[in-house]
Amino acid sequence: MRCRICGAEAAVRLRYANTALCGEHFVRFFERRVERTVRKFGMIESGERVAVAVSGGKDSLAMLYALSGLAERMGFEIVGITIDLGIEGGRYSERCVEIAVENYERLGIPYKVVRLSEYGFTVDELARARLRPRVCSLCGSVKRHLLNKIAREMGASRLATGHNLDDFLQVVLQHYLFGRIEELAKFYPAIPPAPGMVSRIKPLVETPERDSMAYVLLKGIEYHGGTCPHARGATSLDLKRALNALERDHPGVKFSMFNVYIKSIYPLLSREYMSKIEDVGACEICGEPTSARICLFCRIREAMKKRLKKSN
User: Which of 89, 176, 204, 304 has its CA 20 to 30 A from that of 217?
Assistant: First the structure.
């Protein structure tokens, strides 16, 4: 196939757009789409400091590079945050951190690496403790807590995460399947700030996962391609496979689902449920925002302290 723009040999075929692009024009297309998403949802304003959460995987690195170019045009500042979760299988966390740091330094972006072990436990230990049947939800809560805390401490007004279009739709479906309607009422590409909470944004929310892969490969960006050893059998992976099967037979269906959610479903849920969502206060232990007396992170930390004390 040939590039629709210049006629050179195509590097990427975009079935959802019924077109193909060479490497150079695909990279431009990718970065322009990220910029459109940022502007459309009012994610970043000139003069802001944006904390970019980088795991070392393809999506967070694609976001880091796209935002680093956009920062110059829009006049905002970027800082990086990476969490070492302490997952040892195949040097998983160690390699994730190494790659994140290499790319921060390549781009000249100031960063902070936060080690979960400094808080008294790791995700491997959390998995062995079996506080819940699957560790993934607890890991997600731990990451959200630390990312918000560190972003705020670094003076950031926004926290950007690398959730792509597939991730976004998977979460929508997961909340629907388990009846978490109030969670859906809060789920949007750009979440405004709240007391103690930095505004959270998803600049890749209109970017399919396969496009992130093509972008990092064409840009020559080293990334961690492994899957977390604790993610095997997760519902999220099954939902993504189902979405990909739909997209394979009906190109563009992911974008259709996203647009229906943004334009029709979210506004209804938001109007109906936002007033019923509990007010956020401060955790009695750490002072971080929570709707409970003690935040989930502190409850996890206390439970792990008891488990680890018993095992020793």
Answer: 89
